[in-house]
Design a protein that fits this description.
Layout (H helix, E strand, L loop, with lengths): L1 H5 L1 H49 L3 H25 L3 H4 L8 H22 L1 E2 L9 H4 L11 H20 L7 E8 L39 E12 L1 H11 L6 E10 L16 H8 L12 H7 L4 H5 L36 E12 L9 H11 L1
Length: 383
Amino acid sequence: MNNFKKYPLFYGILSALVLIFIAGSGYNFYLYKWSLADAEKTTKRAQSSFKRTLSDAPTEDQLKISEDNIKKLDEKLGFLIKDLSRASADIIKKCPYTEGYQLVEGIRGIVNRWKQTCKAKGIKIPEDMDFSFKRYYQPGADPAVSESIEPLWKQACVLDYILGKLFKSKPEDMEMGITSVQREVLSSEGVKRDKKGRVMRSSDGSETFTIDPLVSARVPGSIDTLAYKFVFTGQTEVLRLFLNQLKSFDAMLVVRSVEVKPYQEDTYFSEEGGDDMSMDEIAAAAGADSMPSGGGDSVEDIAALMGMGGDAATQQAPAEPPAQEAAPAEGDSSEAPVDESNTPIVTNNTSEFSVVIEYLEVIKDLPQKPAKKEQGEAASEEE
């Protein structure tokens, strides 16, 4: 007691520290019990989730049945692909080229063969027709990059097959012309594209196009396609023969769109925007003798442009129905007069056809996971 009285400050601080220690120990024990209860709840939830997952997991027998089903479906898919592309091995031949300059020479030879075929069959083509391979056909063309050799060869083989059907669609007694042939630029060619995925202006000019994704049958990872656009002229028989040949199951070809419009050799368009000229502007460009006189929007003008002739254009419906001619009397062998005005107005006019065709390929291999390095680069680009 003497010490307490002698050193009150020391013993007071010591007592306070002891009380603080006891309070801290109690608080730590409370936190331990709370965290332990929370950990127990988390463990129970994890165990419950594991048990549910384990109960839903297939057994070895079920896995074996699933593997057998996948194998059967894969065999069925292979049969369908083979049946829908019976001549695919003959259409897409093994690429004989290993260098880009060799492929360029091969494409030039194929394009020259197409031109000779058109000349032999009497099919009209523009003088600068390169069948969508202007980039590799023109003099001094750069060789194809090594990554695009195989895809370009496949694209040329499919185009050769479709053009063969188009060449066979020309009747011997009818005229036919090929205005343009367009292909899609392959991603492996290394061309620049804009934000919407469209190919930026290049040396190909108008010989390449980008198919609308809403029209295309392409599904990334499942179905790959090669799209082509053909613009040719002729009578309707040419289009009918061409479409009839495409419906054969030699290859998986799908016609995505068909457009038809009247064809005129001398068609006048404004240089900006491509809008049609007015009737007066067409008359001024074509000359006064080639256009009928009078108002530019009259029925006679429109009929003259359609090649109907003045009589057909000015012909109007009679106010009253013509009186029925009397039947010839018995024994009268004279024939009834023939009305020459009933000559058909519409004849076999030349039309311009635009057909978009896709060659389909089913991707059976599962997509490979990108490497970790590529994943890191993609994440950095997104950031």
